[in-house]
Amino acid sequence: MSSPIQLKPDETFILNVGPQHPATHGVLRVKMEMNGEYIVNAETVIGYIHRMHEKMGELKTYPQFLMNLSRMDYLGALGYSHGHVLVVEKASGIEVPERAEYIRAIMVELNRIASHLFWFGAFVMDLGGFSPLMYALQDREHILDMLEAVTGSRLTYCYFRYGGLYNDVDDQFVASARKFIPRMRKSLKKYHKLVTGNVIFRKRLEGIAPLSKETCRKYGASSAVARGSGINFDVRKNEPYSVYPEFDFDIPVYHECDSLARYNVRMDEIEQSLRIIEQGLDKLPGGPIMPEKKPKIIKPPEGDYYQAVETARGSFGVRLVSDGGKTPYRLKLRSPTYSNMHLFDESCRGMLIMDALAFMGSLDLVIPEIDR
Amino acid sequence: MRLTLFNVVVAVIIAIAFAAVNAAYLVWAERRGAARIQRRPGPNINGPFGLLQPPLDGIKLMAKQLTIPGGADKILFIAAPVLAMFPAIMSFVTIPFSENIVAKNMNVGVLMIFAFAALGSTSLLFAGWSSRNKYAMMASIRAVSQTVAYEIPMLITTITVVMIAGSMDLMEIVHQQSGSILSWNIFPLFGRSHNILMPMSFLIFFTCTLAETNRAPFDLGEAESELVAGFHTEYGSMGFGLFFMGEYANIVIGSCMTTILFLGGWGCPFGLFPGVWWFIIKLYLLIATFIWIRWTFPRTTIYGLLNLSWKILIPLSLFNLLFTAGLLKVF
Amino acid sequence: MICEETKRALQKLFPADEVIAETPEEAVDDSEKKAKKPVPRANGLLERDYAVHGYHLDAQVAADQVVEAVGILDKADFFIESITGVDWIKDNQLEVIYDFSRYDFDLCRVVIRTRVDRNNPEVPTITEIYAGANWHERETHDFFGIKFIGHPHLIPLLLPEDADFHPLLKDYKA
Fold first, then answer.
1. CB contact under 8 A, B135 and A198
2. pLDDT over 70 for what percent of chain A?
3. Peptide bond before A19: cis, by omega within 30 degrees of 0?
4. What is the number of domains present in chain B?
5. Cβ neighbours of A221 in C, within 8 Å
């Protein structure tokens, strides 16, 4: 009787991980050339949910395009809108009231925590632990409730406007946000007890998938991928924008370069985001949320503008080339996971498949954001 | 009990029914337990506390078509799920639940159970090999290497107990431990060996049971985040159902064996009112631990798993075997 | 600091020119701009106002100078942000834009751009220098049809495998 799968001893075989695979969290495909459990070579195939947001950007007027941004990254949507409104405001010289800037920062940080929480749960699930996802989702639920009350949506927010916001926050939001901070700190402690200290968990991540600084630089990695490799890079600090210089927060940096370092960075970032929210709520000034003077039709003057922001997934850049018209001449969206995912091919060579998939989880992928 | 054909047939039927009902309701218990751990309700719609869920799931699975992938080895593909369930059920025949409740007691009961347990790994191999699916193939190779690795410390630990009891008869092993908790093999102060290392043996045996039944944190055979669904990736319908039930039947067998070998079978911890109820309590406490562990720990790596067996469990269990032999000579 | 150094290094690519402080187009007011037909910018290095444009240095080079210019940035420890294109259909040119930034706190964003003929868009690849340019160049090839000479694997990345259209060209009609 012959085996249905024929292999010679030194032969490699191709394993198609995805486009429908539980570990890829979306329609991502990795063609892995395997030698037993070891990966010899990998080729990532993306573009399964490519929607050509950049062409849509050219066809739609500026306000019409606002809602597209939150369809890019469904977990940390507000950060992406932030980048877009900032570049358009910069280009057309719109002044943003201080209150709006503070509320933006608070909202983006809340969204960042929500995104990190989801990542935390999904990452531990990649490693085979199911329960933390449910705990993380419960905490995320509080954030979504808060955001829903203000923005009107739970996932694909369209909250920022050029020059300000769609809706002001009320006392109830401030109260619930204040209540949320200690609760989140408590759960964070619980997560560290349940997951971070777990010996199996640490064994799975320590020393796995080391990424050198040089690799990060050559691929343009950002977010926890870079910070886990000892690179002190956070757009909020390196290239301060909005009201971030007003806040006192740290950039967690780990020098181990492994998957555990990336995990630790994200977990510490939750705490830092809580600090920003806390200070933001304390400092929240009164006043309007939309500027008094604002052009009726957004028409940035001719030129070429760039704005980078730190989203939950890393440095997101928007390049706006305007010809002075009602629609952008060219709108380039530089998505962070696109670069982060790119280094997977090179780095996963010689790894066990289960380590490689843990590594993939540690990159915090959101596929619609890669494919745009 | 007089051994007539009628008696044996009835007893076997009861054993099979016990195994099947246990397997079905452990799925329910697992889902409820997982839900409790994860702070959600779990299945609670069908029947009181969702108790009708398992039969309904069974009906649903049976109503599905069993698809056989093109290019698969048909005979082995169909044989594999049957092989997963069959040894587990057969093992129940010889397990003594109390003094009188045993289908067929044999003087080589231990041997028989391990022989059937070894059959279980062939079912994983068959399933993965015949599916013509690379994930299934990889998973079955993992599962078999895992089963082989963990059978050794498990058997060595069992031999330790058999040596203490001086018999391979499960009844005899339980009788050896009669009395209070202090004469059980887990903590045998009053037993024959006075071996203080026995708690370690218990842990080794329990760990091996976890690994043998492919349960988390050792569920590398069906590591769903890596290998989709492992060896049963291509199975649907009742083929999948049988694998599923086989897994739970194996858990029951493993817990029964742990109870008999280490926890004094149907003996009461205080030496009072021994009976089947103690057996059941111990059995389900162990099963609850299984569920608890599964929903708490992440999965190990395949090499971490094999290293644990070959480098830690086997040397430790061998040492305990020699140590016990020495103690038995002394006392 | 690093900006100054990079500026000097990049300046060597354009031996004749001096650094221009601000774009001439922006200096002139609107009425004048409308009057004369805008001409494509000549190659050279510009220092941009960071507060307005979001980057510091803007170097437009000839296509065959791209590798050299990127090599300078690689030596100075810049990381690659993105590569993209712009279709200047009126000038019958395609522009390729390379964005670079730094990991340290010595903030300096550099944009390298090059313009090629729209009918025969060919730019040398920089994957030899920055491995991460691979996907960015493939994406730019997808969207604009710009051929990156020497690219190891120039097949559609985001578009379907058999895509022969380039959606971000201004004359592309869906």
1. no
2. 97
3. yes
4. 1
5. 79
